[in-house]
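BUG: 3D viewer hangs when loading the predicted structure for this chain

Environment: internal workstation, default settings.
Expected: structure renders.
Actual: progress bar stalls at 90%.

Input used:
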Amino acid sequence: MPLRQEETLPVERGEAEVPRAPAPRSHGRQWAIGIAAFLIVVALVISGILPRVKARATLHAETSELAIPTVLTTKARAAAPAQEIVLPANVQAFADSPIYARTNGYLKRWYVDIGSHVKSGQLLAEIETPEVDQELRQALADQATATANLGLARITADRYADLLKTDSVSKQDADNAAADYAAKKAILESANANVKRLEQLQAFEKIYAPFEGVITARNTDIGALIDSGSSGGTRTELFHIAQPNRLRVYVSVPQAYSQAAKPGLKADLTLAEFPGRRFQGMLVRTAEAIDQTTRTLLVEIDVDNPTGTLLSGAYAEVHLRLPTATSSLIVPVNCLLFRSEGLRVATVSDDKVTLRPVTLGHDFGTEVEVLSGLNPDEPIVVNPPDSLVSGQQVRLAQNLPGGGPAQ
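Structure tokens produced before the viewer hung:
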């Protein structure tokens, strides 16, 4: 086999050509090529994987960052030691009474109408009572009969008593005459009582004002059938009278303020029809019991109304300045969380949320009073999300001024 050119070696002339073994390859160069190829592959792999790993790490960090809610906080402000609370109230006349008929009949005439100012004992109306009149006449006749019978019985008893002294009559006959006299006397007394009863019913034909006041309703007219209710029918209310020179104002005070609402406190009334004007009154009595339905204490405030400016039955607002024995806090209403376990307020400490149970006092509209459950220096979350739970980490945004309502 002929040798490759690089494998043949020259020989001296006259000597035969002898083939030599091939030179060994360079192992260092092969290793360098292999390492270079490996590095190229590793570089390609790294250049494709590292950006994805970095993007994933960045996405995870951003997701974790966005998962932390950002909240606004504010602080509760302390309520005044003696605070004024405003409560709805009903204004009523100091004396208010319906006027009914005491006897049956027909209305003969009436003398007053709504808005009439009447004096105590003034005649308001007259009723015709023909049945009562007839019964009275019959009772008077019975009275006359009983009087005549009594006279005869008395004469008979006296005669029998005299005859008994001479034994002209028996003892039994004398006793019978005396007993008959006593019975006739009782019958006369019964007839007299019946006459007085019917005379009183007849007197009820005239309706008089029970006290000085204003007629606020007239519910009858001439010729109307009047039923006193004595026979089981529905009573007929003829008039309604109220005494407006002094008013009673009834207010339901929340249980939280019941201990401070004591007789002697000053109270002011405001009404929509008198803007900018206040009417002074005084708390005179309380029910001394909490209504189990509303959990409020009913109190009465008396207000002088000599000119009749205030009308009975009006709606008013009572301003009560109550001394508070315990300090309370005022927070915005949009800081409250309504949960199934009860009312909660979210506070923040070390960037973590704590849901605190609170007890509310008065509702001021945009703000509420918190009686217990909060400390005055705690940051409170404004508009807390419904998903907020205790121990959750949050990020604080710019805080609001203490106690100010947030939008």
